[in-house]
Amino acid sequence: MASRRRTLLKVIILGDSGVGKTSLMNQYVNKKFSNQYKATIGADFLTKEVQFEDRLFTLQIWDTAGQERFQSLGVAFYRGADCCVLVYDVNSMKSFDNLNNWREEFLIQASPSDPDNFPFVLLGNKVDVDGGNSRVVSEKKAKAWCASKGNIPYFETSAKDGINVEEAFQCIVKNALKNEPEEELYMPDTVDVVGGNRGQGSSGCC
Amino acid sequence: MMSSRVVKRNDTANAISGEVATQLASIEEDRAVEETHEGNSAEESYDAEKVDRSQDGAPGDSTSVTLEGDNGGSYFPWREELESLVRGGVPIALRGEMWQAFVGVGARKITGYYNKLLDERTDVLDEKDLKDQVVNEQKSSPKKDPKPEKWKGQIEKDLPRTFPGHPALDEDGRNALRRLLTAYARHNPSVGYCQAMNFFAGLFLLFMPEENAFWALVGVIDEYFEGYYTEEMIESQVDQLVLEDVVRERFPKLAKHTDILGVQVTWVTGPWFLSIFINMLPWESVLRVWDVILFEGNRTMLFRTTLALLDLYGPALVTTKDAGDAITLLQSLAGSTF
Prior knowledge:
The complex is a heterodimer.
Chain A: E1 8-15, H1 21-30, E2 43-52, E3 55-64, E4 83-89, H2 93-97, H3 99-110, E5 120-125, H4 139-148, E6 154-156, H5 165-178, H6 188-195
Chain B: H1 2-9, H2 31-36, H3 46-57, H4 65-68, H5 79-87, H6 92-103, H7 105-108, H8 113-120, H9 127-132, H10 152-158, H11 171-187, H12 197-207, H13 210-224, H14 234-250, H15 252-261, H16 265-274, H17 283-296, H18 300-317, H19 323-337
Helix pairs in contact in B: 6-17, 8-11, 11-12, 11-13, 12-13, 14-15, 14-16, 17-18, 18-19
């Protein structure tokens, strides 16, 4: 595919409508939260320059529309993704139950070469809501799901308060790099460092 | 000036709205219907009527449906002038009336239909009703159908995400928006509710009364954008494929460049089309695009606007060095141009 030198990391954010995908992206890229986001139609896109282990990358973040039918539109931009961020709302069981669908749909559409080891990161968003009192998905349950899918790193976030957002995206970058094909100019020892994805990761990466 | 011309042509259809009598030819026959408003007659017959109308309105050439429709297909001599006026931008004070005339709200309107849709199920449509409904006898109506309306949750999510912060979308505004979207979803279950319709409905509500906004929405989604917002979104996909071909033909250099970068123009233009440029262009430009779309009654303006943007920025686009830059530039085109 792309034969260019690799400095771009492509990240796709998926999850049910209203879980906070746009808010997370904006909190990370612009350090801002607004109560006034518009529903995302189709897909949106932002870039951010990130430094990771002395290298500069351009993170290309694709924010998607949550309504299911938009899947039938071109999701061609899934292809070539380096990491897929799944988002659910800890206050919505349905958004958690749908994670399987989002993950599978992504794997079908993006058709990565090694689907079993493709890097996902899970974010349980809106932990700030109602002081946690309206929460319906426990951390334990989320972690169990992550473990069952090959130890997906998990973070509990609040896009509103900026909780864990930076950390989560650090991990996303790290995992996106893991996906980097070895033949490209990149030092394999770094791959080893981030390679062990067996940590149970109490809201941690790898 | 424009309205005087319209009025002249339209001597039977005078002054329903006081300030502007902008009803165009095809709307005349329905004056009477409209004036009865939510009358309680005619309710039983609306189904048959509706079928009739949709056949009448079936566009051979969709551009001419509302404007050349009924008067024996007679070409009205001021069409060209009107067209150029519309392209120059409909004056804000006339916009609501003009849009309704363009879409043929009067001709489409079936008395009582809107309210009947809302009554079909006695589910709560307003926060306020929630409280009132305990005492509302309709609640125990035998018509009540337990079939879940799966688009409901999505509408709720999108109400506060429709022009957030706009003063018109206060509690009453949101309730109107909810009713409008609910009525549409029931009217056309093959579409139900698709995100983006919230913006269209919100836009119409800013310019016309609620029930008229419903009929305008019906015109746009059932006709001009038929097959666009259904579950499969087929027509939307078709438009992007067509656009891709046109871009290749018209801007071969640009197409080649985006190929090399591994970028598809349609990743960016898809959302432009789907949202009919709402939130993509500055507000005033959105209204201007809508002026033309509603006047022409088809989607040509979407292509024209997009191609114009690509034409303007093609030279800059072909200098981008990676996919991120290209997409960022593409995205910024719409927002910064007009």
